[in-house]
Amino acid sequence: MNKLFKKIAAVVVAASTAVVGLTGCVAGEGSAASAENGEALSVIKLDYAYWNPLSLVIKDQGWAEEEFAKQGATVEWVLSAGSSKALENLNAEAIDVASSAGSAAFAARANGATLKTIGVFSQPNWATTVVPKGSDITSVAALKGKKIAAASGTDPYFFLLRSLSDAGLSTADVEIVNLIHADGQKALESGDVDAWAGLDPLTATSERTAGSVILSSKPEYNSWGVLSVNEKFLAAHAAELEIVLSLYEKARTWIAENQDAAVAILARDASLDEGDARKVLLERTKVDVSIIPGAEQKSVLEAITPVLVAEGKIKSQEAADNALASIYDTAIAEKVAK
């Protein structure tokens, strides 16, 4: 499964970018002019991820290429191996729209990134705490003094922090080994660690092939799958972003009407057993949700904020409060919402 994921950055602390005035024409009227230099966008860089099934459908169906050809633009697809990598690429302007966990985008903004979350792609149950087959660990409290693999700056990592806090523990009570998701899976199955902050679809595969067991699963602790952009790009290219969010709504409807085909796309692209793909997409991922970010997503972030501040993953409570108050821009999502 190593081929599913590349090296994930440890923690996203993005550099600030300047905010420019909001411009752009309505989607369908032709290319939007850049607020910076008056030039039309010639290429839009979109990410896709095995944990973002809507992105896989859009890519597979060729809808983005079709729509942006009308605007005189081409599409470049970039794989996001995890939230940290997606936000790192967004900060570097290697992509224009980033898929990530809501918690990762929130932490990035609180720590200085000028990103905005503009849409929601899913309500997943993708993050869990996993132990190997035959483990005598039966509760999160029993992880005290144990070695846990986790990819820092990702939803499984934040899920682990919150689960530890619920059990009266902190990172000082365990040994966290910072490993990318695929390497964390390998470490668990080889016995190098006692537990793993797992991420689907890897978790589903590990359950089937290695007998791994989910120790802790709380869907309400997962921070939703969201789409974020740099403020500068949002100001300059609202029209193009309206097209992107419209395609996400189209993919949402398509999956509901073509579940078997959607499962097949996920299985093919992520090199998954079809049964694992079906479990991940149809049992652990809810895509029939509103694209408009708001109170539901914010409530999850509010709940995890004290832990992130206490663990130093957000620089201060003030920074967290400011990020919570400013991270969402719902204007485009409200226009395209079905």
UniProtKB/TrEMBL annotation:
Residues 43-258 form the Solute-binding protein family 3/N-terminal domain. Residues 1-21 form the signal peptide. Its main location: periplasm. Keywords: Signal, Transport. It holds the Pfam family NMT1. The keyword Metal-binding does not apply. InterPro entries: ABC_SsuA_sub-bd (IPR010067), Solute-binding_3/MltF_N (IPR001638), SsuA/THI5 (IPR015168). Gene3D superfamilies: Periplasmic binding protein-like II. One of its GO terms (cellular component) is membrane. One of its GO terms (molecular function) is ATPase-coupled transmembrane transporter activity. It is found in: Periplasm. Part of a binding-protein-dependent transport system for aliphatic sulfonates. Putative binding protein. Belongs to the bacterial solute-binding protein SsuA/TauA family. This is Putative aliphatic sulfonates-binding protein. It comes from Candidatus Rhodoluna planktonica.
